[in-house]
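=== RUN LOG ===
request id: a7f3
mode: sequence -> structure
chains: 1
length: 105
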Amino acid sequence: MSESEPREGVTLEHELEGLERAVGALLDELGRLRSRATAAEEKHDRLEKSLLESRTDGSDPEALERRIQQLNEENDQLKSVIAEARERAMGIRSRLVVIEDETAD
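=== RESULT ===
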């Protein structure tokens, strides 16, 4: 036996350990990629469902962008209406409190 034989065994063992670590890292990465792919597929399915429910043609991105803009404008208008209604309700509530105070005396 020469001195190189034990050294080759040590080197082979060291390289096998390195290979095991590399395979482990690849399996971890594969798991992360599978998780990301699953999440992306779920998001895609939700978006597809939303497109179908909205009856919007998803094949025309510009039309979709216009529809989104319209919906945002409608949303802003509705927020304004709600804010105004809330102010009116607070005014009515204040008047009722004053009336209750006056009738309680």
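=== NOTES ===
The first helix runs from residue 4 to 54.
The helical segments are 4-54, 61-104.
=== END ===
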